Each structure stands twice: as structure tokens, then as C-alpha cells.
Amino acid sequence: MKIGYLDFLYLDGGIQKAGILVADKNTKPIEFRATTSLEIDELQRILYGDVLEETLIKENFALDLIKALKIKPDLVLVKDKELLEIRSKVNVPIGYISKFDPFKATYRYSKQISSKTGRFDTLVLMVNREDEKYLDEFVRKLQNVYKNFNLLEPFNRVYKALEYLSQERG
């Protein structure tokens, strides 16, 4: 299974860069892509207002990165639930992954992923309605990975790589 990890670098109160890491079933990197800094003009800020970050930045960054991949992942994991909406614009399933919270409502298109070894926290994976038919398969495959590797850790790698690129390029 090839898993994509999509994350964002936030600086100065907003998103500056985005990156996607495609990893194998052992979370070993296969491909990495990152955006350059996004320049937003004042007119765009005015017109988009409070939805600027969600619509213009996250969606555009995410779409561009996923479409630019040479190695297509079987599933792209994201930490922002709103990004499930981009599924209709890409040919790759999108999964929102987070730590399981027993006090949060469960959703129809979600399932828990538990660490059989007890090394890691229980997670929850949510997919778009379009990918509900693959949910059990994704959970089974991710649980196999989760036996030995923390499924959330590659997000840290993406973030650190984006920080590095941000410092390197200025």
C-alpha cells in the first residue's frame, strides 16, 4: 500500500507551503512534493474573506500536489476534514485521519484503527461517501502498517521538510 501524507506549513498566521509525502507500507519515502510560497494579493484577501485559507489555499495546494505526483498513492491521508471535499476533483481516495476521541460523534463513513500492539493511540479514519466501499479495505491495510509504524508520524516529516525548505529558500 502506498500512502500519501498531505500537510501544511503555517507561518505568520497563515499557510505558507504545502507538501505531500508518498510512503510505502513501512512508511519509507517514495516521493515528496512541495509547493512554493503562495502569493495572495489584497483583492483576493478581500473577496475570499474568512474562507480564503479553506478554499483558495488548502484546496488549490492540495489539488496541485496530488495531481503532480508521479507515483499515485492508494490513499491520501489529511489532517483537515474539509479536504475530504477535494475527492471529486482527484482520482485518489482522500482519508481524514485523527486520534480517536470517544466524546466526539462518529460518522457513517468512518472506522477506528487500533494498534494491536498497544504502542499507539487508537485512530479514526473518515472517507468521502464516494469511497465508503473501500473503507474496510483501507482500515485493514492501515492496521497492518500500524502494527509497526505510527500512521501519524509521517505528517511530522512533511512539516519538518516544509520548515527546512522555507528556511533554505527564504
Structure characteristics:
7 strands, 4 helices, single chain, archaeoglobus fulgidus dsm 4304 fold, alpha/beta, 170 residues, 7-stranded mixed sheet
Gist?
It contains four helices and seven strands.
Describe this entry's structure for a reader.
This protein is α/β, with parallel strands linked by helices. It has one domain: 2-Layer Sandwich (archaeoglobus fulgidus dsm 4304 fold), CATH 3.30.2170.10. Helix content is 31%, strand content 26%. The chain has four helices and seven strands. The chain has helices spanning 42-48, 52-68, 135-146, 153-169; strands at 3-11, 14-23, 29-34, 75-78, 94-99, 110-113, 123-127. Strands 3-2-1-4-5-7-6 form a seven-stranded mixed beta sheet, with helices on both faces. The longest helix is centred in the middle third of the chain and has 17 residues, at 52-68. It is globular, with a radius of gyration of 16 Å. It starts with a strand and ends with a helix.
